Amino acid sequence: MTKHGACNPAASEALDSPATPPDSINPSTLDGSMGFALRKAYQYAAVEVAKVLELFDLRPQDYAVMDIIGANPGRTQVAISAAYGIQTTNFVALITKLEHRHLVERRKVVNNRRAFALHLTSQGEEMLREVEAAHALHEERMRSRLGEARSRLLIELLHAFVNAT
């Protein structure tokens, strides 16, 4: 349709013609867009990591939270949720789910009756080790797409982009 609502005959003829082979499609202006490139890379990475995590019945946020708790045992829900960048109310539901699976436990903080310290259970520690091993293989496959030096550079650039003020 044109901007006035009329149908463009050339466009409808193009729609009726056989599909153009993918290798002959011209790149769009979005191919030069940082945001678009980041989105495409994220989609690829998200699908691949989801395949790894579904073997453990985990979502990426479950793994990330378990990893942070494993690296920071005894820190409070508030501290961990702030580090992860998730609202406390959403975080509590995530922790409750992990707690029901006996992967994480909340312990009362001695001098603050309202706060809870988070710890991985022995089952959670064991699962985290298994997930980390599977994730390491996934990372290896991802890095092989660019090579080690370019992978390190990409990570460095992504951190610089996220932390820029």
Q: How would you explain this protein's 3D organization?
A:
- This protein is mostly helical.
- It has a single domain, classed as Orthogonal Bundle (Arc Repressor Mutant, subunit A).
- Helices cover 61% and strands 9% of the residues.
- The chain contains seven helices and two strands.
- The protein has helices at residues 9-16, 34-54, 60-71, 77-84, 88-100, 122-144, 148-163; strands spanning 104-109, 112-120.
- Strands 1-2 form a two-stranded antiparallel sheet.
- Strand 1 (104-109) and strand 2 (112-120) form a beta hairpin.
- The radius of gyration is 23 Å and the shape is elongated.
Write out key terms for the chains shown.
2 strands; Arc Repressor Mutant, subunit A; 61% helix; two-stranded antiparallel sheet; 9% strand; 165 residues; elongated; mainly alpha
Structural class, from secondary structure content? mainly alpha
Which superfamily, in CATH terms, is the homologous superfamily? Answer: Winged helix-like DNA-binding domain superfamily/Winged helix DNA-binding domain
CATH fold type = Arc Repressor Mutant, subunit A
- Mean pLDDT comes to 87
Give the radius of gyration. 23 Å
The order of strands across the largest sheet is 1-2
Q: What's the total helix number?
A: 7
- The shape, in one word, is elongated
CATH uppermost class = Mainly Alpha
- Total domain units: 1
Rounded to the nearest angstrom, the distance between the terminal CA atoms is: 43 Å
Largest sheet: 2 strands, antiparallel
Give the strand content.
5-15%
Number of strands: 2
* Approximate helicity band: 55-70%
Order of helices and strands: HHHHHEEHH
Uncertain runs are: 1-5
* CATH architecture identity: Orthogonal Bundle
